[in-house]
Design goal:
With 160 residues, this protein is of the alpha+beta class. The chain is built from 5 helices and 10 strands, in the order E-E-E-E-H-H-E-H-E-H-E-E-E-E-H.
Length: 160
């Protein structure tokens, strides 16, 4: 099942060199998480469409399985979707995810980072979350934006 992002060239997706917008939303355990909590740390902020779907599961499990390699590069992982705390908890438990999943049910972060937009599946256009990853440095500046995410090898895209 291939998703085509139809609006990337004209999108509002934040670019490298931009200050990463702060946010405060609950994680899968209901704890409030803010980007400012990670000041002085590098962050992988990855956006994904939906918990427990094939591509999103492959991406999350690849990040989980490669977390030691990611940690050697001093990155913390934060996954974001519009799913609820309850949905994130179920997803994290089912796949033993060892990082925070942020429940952006109001699409605050999703809109701030510009990842909400038109998508196409089987010729049908609809609005949804684009699968995009932002690598944020210790000072809160976006270092890199990955828009062509390889869900099964995403950790390698990040750490090289």
């Amino acid at each position: 099942m291939a998703f085509k992002i139809t609006n990337l060239p004209n999108s509002n997706i934040l670019k490298a060199g931009t200050k990463a917008p702060d946010f405060s939303v609950p994680d899968q355990d209901g704890n409030l998480v803010s980007l400012k909590d990670y000041k002085g740390k590098k962050v992988i902020l990855y956006f994904y469409p939906k918990d427990d779907t094939p591509g999103c599961t492959a991406e999350a499990c690849d990040l989980r399985d490669n977390r030691p390699l990611i940690m050697k590069k001093n990155y913390e992982i934060l996954g974001v979707s519009a799913d609820s705390v309850k949905s994130h908890k179920k997803f994290a438990t089912k796949f033993n995810l060892t990082f925070k999943l942020l429940a952006d049910t109001e699409k605050d972060i999703i809109n701030k980072y510009g990842v909400w937009g038109e998508k196409m599946l089987f010729g049908r256009k609809y609005m949804g979350i684009h699968r995009v990853t932002f690598l944020i440095d210790e000072k809160g500046i976006i270092e890199q934006v990955i828009t062509e995410v390889d869900t099964k090898n995403h950790a390698q895209q990040i750490v090289g």
